[in-house]
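Exam revision sheet. Question 4 asks you to relate a sequence to its structure. Input first:
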Amino acid sequence: MRPTLPQPLIRLIGVYRADGGLVGEVRYLIGHYLRGQSCSLCDITHATLRRKAAWDERVRALGIPFELVHLNEMEPSLAAFVGDRAACVVAETDNGWVLVLSNDELAATGGDVDAFMEALESALGPSMQIP
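Answer key, structure tokens:
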């Protein structure tokens, strides 16, 4: 069982396993479609070329700030914490960064937004129920 996260949560951050910007997006698409590379968080948040409406709706209802960042967009302290663990979801707390969901846990959702929300709720524990 996962330990209870320290409260309060300041924000959640989803870290893609890809760089942002036009060049990063093109690199990801080439790697994804020609080499079979993937980003488990991209699979959850995006349909072919745009964000899933279900993702936006569910995140809006969380009541917790949730940001999505690419590898080249992370602030230095987050980049140092994440290291080579992207894709992942991290919580910023009063005590620093905490890994909430690993790449393997994200991949286990099969790209399904509802399965992601169930995994997130389980990881956050009973004090953080998600609508």
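Marking note for examiners. The CA atoms of residues 81 and 97 lie 7 Å apart.
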